[in-house]
Write a structure and sequence with these properties.
This protein has a domain at about 35-105: 3-Layer(aba) Sandwich (D-Maltodextrin-Binding Protein, domain 2), CATH 3.40.190. Helix content is about 45%, strand content about 10%. It has four helices and three strands. It has a three-stranded parallel beta sheet with strand order 2-1-3. The radius of gyration is 21 Å and the shape is elongated.
């Protein structure tokens, strides 16, 4: 089969492919400060333990401290509400569980918008 890729198109595609990694190098480094894991359950439970294991490994990879912030109460609504009010800068990560997909049906009105927050 004969290719219809012209020399000009090939050169343009090659230039774009070569420049693509440079865009990642120009991006701001992340993380530059501690990353906070918001856990909507008390310390010692399975969700908290899993979050601690993940945060420890990610801290080693990122070479940045991580913090576990337990916000227990109301079936995870207290923690989810805190996460919804977090700045959208990527330094606050919410550890969700199955409760967060069921809560809207069980509780009706929540203090956050599950689609926007």
């Amino acid at each position: 089969m004969h290719s219809s890729l012209s020399r000009r198109n090939f050169m343009a595609a090659s230039l774009l492919a070569a420049a693509h990694p440079l865009a990642a190098l120009a991006a701001d480094p992340w993380p530059t400060k501690p990353v906070r894991f918001i856990v909507p359950f008390p310390p010692g439970g399975p969700v908290d333990t899993t979050a601690r294991i993940f945060s420890q490994k990610l801290s080693e990879i990122w070479k940045t401290p991580t913090v576990i912030d337990n916000r227990a109460g109301a079936g995870g609504v207290v923690g989810a509400s805190a996460a919804a009010k977090e700045a959208p800068d990527g330094y606050g990560l919410f550890v969700a569980a199955i409760h967060h997909s069921v809560n809207p049906a069980l509780m009706g009105k929540l203090p956050y918008d599950i689609e926007k927050d």
